[in-house]
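Researcher: Structure for this, please.
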Amino acid sequence: MSAVANPATVAECLRVGTGFSQGDRNWIAEQFATLDSRLAGFHADATELEVSVKDREARGQKVTLECWIAGRQKIVTTSAEEDLHAALNDVRDDLRRRLNDAKTRQEPRHNKHLRDVSQPDPAEEAEALPAADPIRADAETA
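Model: Predicted structure, token format:
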């Protein structure tokens, strides 16, 4: 991947949604800082992250992390962990895995080593084919 002039970072791209306040944003960004190396390959102005929580601190809370990167499908990760800290780590790790998977799916197209598949030699292919039956060949041409 080519170098990006303005690489995306969590601190720059993160928005807090339902269930979080702007005061929560800094400590969430610190938790998600390990995503910076994965996001660095994308332009900051074409990348958005939004984290939200439903029923915060309740038994059935659900944390959602959404990621929009221009030219790609939206990635949504969720966690139903009861501990908020654990749920945030869960969605962060899942997003990292999904970004890595998306990158791996694209790599072979741009990796010459993986594209290099030796082409079979036509002479070897001819040797591998069974010899034609001369009696049958005469019958077909007659």
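Researcher: Any notable elements?
Model: Residues 84-110 form the longest helix (27 residues). The helical segments are 10-13, 22-31, 36-39, 84-110, 112-115, 122-128, 134-141.
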